[in-house]
Prior knowledge:
- By secondary structure, this protein is mainly alpha-helical.
- The protein is built from 21 helices and five strands.
- Helix 19 (417-426) links the parallel strand 1 and strand 2 (435-436).
- The protein is globular and about 80 Å long.
Amino acid sequence: MNRFIHRKSVFVLLSIFIFGLFLRVNNLHDIFFYGHDQARDFHAVFEMLTIPKLKITGPGTDIPGLFAGPLFYYLAAIPSMLFRFNPNAFAILLICINLLGIPLIYILGKRYANFTVGIVAAFLWALSFELSNFSRFISNPSLLPISGLIFFLGLYLFFFEKKQKGLLISIVGYGLATQTEFYPVYLGILYPLFFWLYKTFPTRKTSIYSIILVVLFFSSFVLAEVKFHFMGVQSLFAYLSEPHGYMTLMDSIRLYYSSLARTLSLNIFGMGKSISFILFFLLYGIFLFLPFEKKKKLFLSVWLFATVPLSIFKTNLVGGNFVHSPLYASYILVVAIVIGTALETKKFRFMGILVLLIVTFFQLRLYVRDNFTESFVLGHQPMTYHDEKQVVLYTYEQAHGKPFSICSVSNPLFVNILWSAVYTLNGEKYGYLPFWAGPSQGASATFLQPDSDHVPLRFLIIEPSNQLPEHALPTTLYAENKISRVVEEKIFGKIRVQKRVVDTNRKIRENSKYEEILKRDNRYGCFF
Length: 528
């Protein structure tokens, strides 16, 4: 009988895994967001592998001078070496890592409640539109949902099942989370809190192993602080001591509601933010009345609301798409517990089936509506790597083997890291790279040489973005029209490309508004 149940669970989990894999890889090739951060990481990994140059810091954070750990770069190095830096290969690796959440949340759901809850939780993880987006997002935050799940799974095993290895598992999750993004370091306060609440402590052997793991995961931070004269610590304390870095109570509540409602909509319910928020807390209220130990309910509740303290800080992170990601599994578990309990109860079985079908329908609707592109939930610009490759192809075809230059209206403004990376990745077969005709890049990583000879053919690439100053594009076009004329304009997705010919004898009507902007900042325009 036990063997039959085991085979049944393996078959069901395998089916869920295949379902989750399909949702994540369908229409995958080149259909993912590739922006400044992805290009920045490409430059870092390329430098690490070709110089070679080991990294002791990772991507930057919202606090200038404070960096995440370098683990993401070393992870990216694996597919980069094997598949010549093809971003699709890294996307596949991240998808595989994300899918590990299916068996992990099944284990936690089954141990917390029962087999049915575990299966429902695994299904909801596979189904989640937002988790699918995270799996295809080639950036360090993509690892946060799985590292957060590992962290809390380990805590549950340690405090409720008295398994010493649970503490080690939680430290691995904690280390992965803080290497991925620095802000989850705050989760460390849960260790003393749970030690105090549950009165369970590690043995001497477990304590030693725990210390070793902590040293391993945080050694890169220590090395970086020593090498860079404690720049990260100074930046963190400067931020925490900044009186304008905190929000009022009402602003904190509004921001927390907005970001959480968005997460609940995309992660579970697939409906509007407000209705998703109401539905979740309705189910959470039902969960509180279910016959589970109070200590278990407290554990899951602490997990659910672990991001509340972050809401007082005024950073892009708190209002962004990643802040709640280490807690995604907790939202799924609450819904799975209520649905699973209903399915196990004859009186409420129909209701459990109905809720599960409704959630499935609205989540799948998001995939269909998005045409399985899953590109723009986490990326702040509506453009894909596919569109960018089409831009590269077009410019080379128009150049007919002759030298040309590019300039861009990019986010961030005046920075060419993205197009430097995309041309490097896709220009090798043409045997040469374009020149860069925009502002000097200073110390920024770039593979494009400046257009010092002002070659006649130029392409102005205009990225879609609502985060640039309103005057950025018209000022750039005004400045560029003074020195080049448009031959034709093409659109690739949401990216506009103007083919231009340099003509320094052009005369256009002077505009005092734009002339004043150019006097203040001469980086507008593309004449290096």
